[in-house]
Design goal:
The complex is a heterodimer of chains A (114) and B (115). Chain A is mainly β. Chain A contains no helices and 11 strands. Chain A is 0% helix and 56% strand. Classes of the chains: A mainly beta (114), B mainly beta (115).
């Protein structure tokens, strides 16, 4: 148990569906992250939020829309996804990232797009 | 840019064997280095870290030494157990884009330990 909770753990959605992933942490962290983990590829950083403000968007397609209403919650809204978007989506949190900062990860949401 | 290269795997060992997973990096600055572990069905957890040259990080019998001269941070354990079966990720933290620190991960190495 890392203190970062993601729901749902598994999600199957059609290409025309709209769904949301949720991440919650009560560690007092002010930075939150979305990562995508695909088979045989490095972990891809998607979005970074510091103090509820988005500070990084790594050229993620607009069919992924993040939302950070407060420092404890992070959402990833999904719409009109493609089968290649199937992956494990990991949320992480930390104090604002510095040189020695440790990130705490949730267990991930396994997303399958059919 | 920053990058991390680690041995591809998979690595399969018998219980009590010696483990080495190689990791090398390139970085624009003077990074901190990390090993994360991902057990089946879980997210990533920090295993150990080192913040300056010649530092040795250690935890749960695992060790890694920050070698600036060879830009390496190889993970070692003297005697692995079945419970060590997991995916291991090498990572670095460095400035990215001039003002933001960023964690960069390797592709991960799957370790399977057989009884």
């Amino acid at each position: 148990e890392t203190g970062v909770t993601q729901t749902p753990r598994h999600l199957v959605m059609g290409m025309t569906n709209k769904k949301s992933l949720k991440c919650e942490q009560h560690l007092g962290h002010n930075a939150m992250y979305w990562y995508k983990q695909s088979a045989k590829k490095p972990l891809e950083l998607m979005f970074v939020y510091n103090f509820k403000e988005q500070t990084e968007n790594n050229s993620v397609p607009s069919r992924f829309s993040p939302e950070c209403p407060n420092s404890s919650h992070l959402f990833l809204h999904l719409h009109t996804l493609q089968p290649e978007d199937s992956a494990l989506y990991l949320c992480a949190s930390s104090q604002p990232m510095g040189l020695n900062t440790e990130a705490f990860f949730g267990q991930g949401t396994r997303l399958t797009v059919v | 840019g920053n990058s991390v290269t680690q041995m591809e795997g998979p690595v399969t060992l018998s219980e009590e064997a010696f483990l080495t997973i190689n990791c090398t990096y390139t970085a624009t600055g003077y990074p901190s280095l990390f090993w994360y572990v991902q057990y089946p069905g879980e997210g990533l957890q920090l295993l150990l870290k080192a913040t300056k040259a010649d530092d040795k990080g250690s935890n749960k019998g695992f060790e890694a030494t920050y070698r600036k001269e060879t830009t390496s941070f190889h993970l070692e354990k003297g005697s692995v157990q079945v419970s060590d079966s997991a995916v291991y990720f090498c990572a670095l933290s460095d400035l990215s884009g001039g003002s933001n620190y960023k964690l960069t991960f390797g592709k991960g190495t799957l370790l399977t330990v057989n009884p």
